[in-house]
Specification:
Oligomer: single chain
Mean pLDDT: 78
Low-confidence stretches: 19-31, 177-202
Distance between the termini: 85 Å
Length: 284
């Protein structure tokens, strides 16, 4: 009888142990990593004179996307504007986890660039906002991007190419940077052999440039952040110390950056100037 009682206690301990182990596994279950962004989205906009001018996104599983705002004629008979130019942009997306994403995009034909936060809701729509509180180029806050399940890639590219031509016309008419026709990074079109290296750098992302500069100076280090301060940018590793931070400026199709000269022992002695073309820096 005593032996049977001890066996019962022993079995109870084993069962409790299994329950606790199961609970432990449940609490340590990893969070949902989210899903890749794919397909077409639409964002509704209204111009200053009340004309509707929607924008469209097309995301690919490889981490790239295209964005366009096709040109539209003004619908306001009292407006001084005959039509509203289009915009064409491209970019990359990165999953942060739990259906939250980081988007980086820039215009094909001028220097506008955007760092954005995006979140996917239960219906498959996206909410997009500027990452910085006071960005140099403002996109907006909680901008709705609505899933377009019926839109094919071909239909999107028709809109994109129309917007692209309008965007190029706008830039040329306003005397901005030379057009950048290289869309090969998005896989939308094959790159043109006639595209000059200088034109392909006019809309380069400062974040991309900063990482390339840092790779030159510290080949074995990983970049943690690229921050803007006035007309300069600062790129650093995880330590953010003075001697691990590189300052650089973008001037047209060239980048100037500063490093510590040989023999200089001051912690922030970044007094040696270097200038490199963006095309060679990015391997263009």
């Amino acid at each position: 009888m005593k032996k049977s009682k001890m066996m019962s206690v022993f079995l109870t301990v084993i069962v409790l142990g299994l329950v606790l182990t199961a609970c432990g596994k449940e609490t340590s279950k990893p969070k949902d990593n989210g899903q890749p962004l794919t397909g077409a989205y639409k964002t509704n906009y209204t111009t200053k004179d009340g004309t509707k001018q929607p924008s469209y996104w097309y995301f690919k599983k490889d981490g790239t996307f295209l964005y366009c705002t096709p040109q539209v004629n003004s619908t306001n008979p009292k407006s001084d504007t005959e039509y509203w130019y289009g915009d064409a942009k491209r970019g990359t997306w990165e999953l942060r986890g739990n259906d939250e994403y980081e988007l980086k995009m820039h215009d094909l034909y001028d220097d506008d660039y955007y760092h954005l936060d995006a979140e996917l809701d239960g219906s498959g729509d996206l909410s997009v906002s500027d990452s910085a509180k006071k960005p140099k180029y403002e996109y907006g806050t909680d901008v709705g991007c609505y899933k377009q399940k019926e839109m094919t890639c071909s239909q999107f590219m028709d809109l994109f190419n129309q917007a692209k031509a309008s965007d190029q016309e706008k830039v040329q008419n306003n005397g901005y940077a030379k057009p950048d026709n290289d869309d090969s990074s998005t896989g939308s079109e094959s790159s043109s052999s006639t595209t000059s290296s200088s034109s392909s750098t006019s809309s380069a992302d400062p974040d991309e440039i900063g990482r390339a500069v840092y790779k030159l100076v510290f080949p074995s280090e990983e970049v943690d952040s690229v921050e803007q301060d006035g007309d300069s940018y600062y790129v650093s590793n995880q330590y953010h110390s003075a001697d691990s931070t590189i300052r650089f400026q973008i001037n047209g199709d060239k980048v100037t950056y500063w490093t510590q000269a040989a023999g200089d022992t001051t912690a922030d002695g970044h007094n040696e100037e270097h200038t490199v073309s963006i095309s060679s820096l990015l391997g263009g």
